[in-house]
Amino acid sequence: MRQLFALLPIVLALVLGGVFFWGLNPERNPNEIPSVLISKAAPEFRLSPVDGTGVPGLSTEDLETAGEITIVNVFASWCVPCRAEHAVLTRIEREQGVPLYGINYKDKPEDAARWLEDLGNPYTRIGSDLDGRAGIEWGISGVPETFIVSADGTVLHRTVGPIVGDTAVTNFNRALQAARDLESAS
Amino acid sequence: MKRWIVAVLFIFLATPSLAVEPDEMLSDPVLEARARALSKEVRCVVCQNQDIDSSNAGVARDLRILVRERLVAGDTDQEVLDYLVVRYGDFVLFKPPLKPSTYLLWFGPGIVLLLAIFAGGRALARARNTANAVTLSPQDEADVNAYLASKEGDQ
């Protein structure tokens, strides 16, 4: 018993050290909410197209029948970080050939159309989520948010906030690669 | 004096500013009361340590309206919370549910308390044993009693 007590300080130091190692890790974002959607089917939603963009709307079936990995990006013309993210998404779509679908969150169709005319439209499909209900189905907390969805409509990854800056872009590309690996393995 | 009374009245009659806007409220006071109570249990996913009842965030407003819609549709309180948990996870609940992955959270403090009582009890028992170990031998006891008796005789 006494020998066991002698070990107590070491055990305490190891446990506390582990907690600090985990908790003080600069890569850990305590505000990040774990998504319940990961590894689950994409939620049920059906959105009509955004007038003036010329691309069709978006619904769950589109994700299930895409036949390849897709990226679903929640964006809005009033969202400033989305503007910065737009360039990154455009590049990913062009260079990697992954279909990019958009959910236009609480945005006026004419504003969204003008925004896409100014910046270019990398989206193959855009659903108009005027009242934000599809956003709630996806469990988003704000815009932008980006999901990677498998060929059969399973959500594989979620990025909260803009994919801007080296770390975010690297992480997203890594998730995209992991999704591809998973897809080719199955 | 009058100014003081007015000042005190202002302080005590001031109502807290509410995030719930009039257009969100239900006309049925019973349902509205349930909605308010439920909203206090739901975490706002934007301003994470605030409940949706007191948050001005856009998503919080949407969720408040959603809670009211579900109640009007006839959901029980639990069904409303389940509906939100399916989309946002246990994270939206301020009170985490009791299930195997949260046993440590719920019972951990109790276990630590029991361990502390056990350790404390042992320490006390040991202290008492040590105290017993230094009691006087019968010979010493007799000497002390004899000395005390002689002292009493002096008085």
Overall description:
The complex is a heterodimer of chains A (186) and B (155). Chain A has 186 residues and is of the alpha/beta class. Chain A contains six helices and seven strands; from the N terminus they run αββαβαβαβαββα. In chain A, strand 3 (70-75), helix 3 and strand 4 form a beta-alpha-beta unit. Chain B has two domains: 2-97, Cytochrome C biogenesis protein (Helicase, Ruva Protein, domain 3), CATH 1.10.8; 102-154, no CATH class. In chain B, helix 2 packs across helix 3 (58-72). The model of chain B has no long low-confidence stretch (mean pLDDT 87). Chains A and B meet through helix 5 of A and helix 3 and helix 4 of B.
Q: Characteristics of this structure?
A:
heterodimer, A: 186 residues, alpha/beta, two-stranded antiparallel sheet, 17% strand, elongated, B: 155 residues, mainly alpha, Helicase, Ruva Protein, domain 3, 2 domains, 6 helices, 63% helix, 0% strand
Mean pLDDT of chain B: 87
**Numbering strands along the chain, what is their spatial order in the largest sheet of chain A?**
5-4-3-6-7
The total beta strand count of chain B reads 0
Structural domain tally of chain B: 2
Largest sheet of chain B: none
Summary?
The complex is a heterodimer of chains A (186) and B (155). Chain A has 186 residues and is α/β, with parallel strands linked by helices. Chain A has helices spanning 2-23, 60-64, 80-96, 109-119, 133-137, 166-185; strands spanning 46-47, 58-59, 70-75, 100-105, 125-129, 145-149, 155-160.
Secondary structure elements and pairings:
The complex is a heterodimer of chains A (186) and B (155).
Chain A: H1 2-23, E1 46-47, E2 58-59, H2 60-64, E3 70-75, H3 80-96, E4 100-105, H4 109-119, E5 125-129, H5 133-137, E6 145-149, E7 155-160, H6 166-185
Parallel strand pairs in A: 3-4, 4-5
Antiparallel strand pairs in A: 1-2, 3-6, 6-7
Chain B: H1 2-13, H2 29-39, H3 58-72, H4 77-88, H5 103-133, H6 138-154
